[in-house]
Amino acid sequence: MPCLIRPCLPADLSAVLAVQAECYIPAMNEPGEVMLARLASAPAFAWVAEEAGEVGAYLMTYPSRIGKVTPLGADFSPAADADCLYVHDLAVSPRWRGSGAGVRLVNHALQEAARRGLQQAALVCVQAAGPFWEKLDFADFSVLTADAQAALATYPGGGRYMVRRGAY
Predict the structure, then answer these.
(1) E strands of the chain, at which residues?
(2) Helix/strand/coil (H, E, C) string of 129-153?
(3) 40-77 burial code (b ≥16 CB/10 A, e <16)
(4) How much of the chain is helix, strand and coil, in % rounded to 5?
(5) Of 56, 79, 63, nearest to 6 (Cα)?
(6) b (16+ CB within 10 A) / e for 1-34
(7) From CA 88, how far away is CA 5, in angstroms rounded?
(8) Rounded CA gap, 36 and 139, in Å?
(9) What are phi and psi of 36, to 5 degrees?
(10) 90, 96, 101: which is closest to 4 by C-alpha?
């Protein structure tokens, strides 16, 4: 399915929340106010995949530091001394699975981050997404501070902190 990758806008909130609800268990659904605050704090680091006016996937990221974990439901705190792109939330509607939209969103974000001097990426892997992220060259990273471990524990069912191997 061909799709347009474009910046996520506040007007996309209802579509983003609908995709989120389709993809995550209820305990992992983050409120609209949090999503809007994230867009306000890092507007150049959020995108949607759209086809014929329908948003079928979204990606929210921000400049961060390796080893810093954003707790579930927390606002983004972009780092002035960022050394990585923190990939907080990628969701692809079940209707869009297999379309390539998720990979296209991630590749777009990595290219944009590289343009801004960020050659590393990190994320919290949840649910059964490990194989997807491993195919994109992410691997488990276990050297975490107590604060980062506590933030990781906010993800229901456990999360895996992963860092992308090598530069992109």
Answers:
(1) 4-7, 46-51, 54-64, 84-92, 121-125, 138-140, 160-164
(2) CHHHHHHCCEEECCCCCHHHHHHHC
(3) eebeebbbbbbeeeebbbbbbbbbbeebbbbebeeebe
(4) 35, 25, 40
(5) 56
(6) eebebeebeeebeebbbebbeebbeeebebeeee
(7) 18
(8) 30
(9) -65, -40
(10) 101
Structure tokens at 101: 């939209």
Q: How many CB atoms lie within 10 A of CB 82?
A: 19
Neighbours of 114 (CB within 10 A): 15
Task: Give, in order, the Cα–Cα distances in Å from 31 to each of 13, 60, 65, 128, 132.
Answer: 10, 14, 25, 22, 25
pTM value is 0.94
Which residue type does 42 have? A
Residue-wise pLDDT tens digits, 30-61:
999 999 999 999 999 999 999 999 999 999 99
Report how far residue 10's alpha carbon sits from residue 69's, in angstroms, rounded to the nearest whole number.
Answer: 24
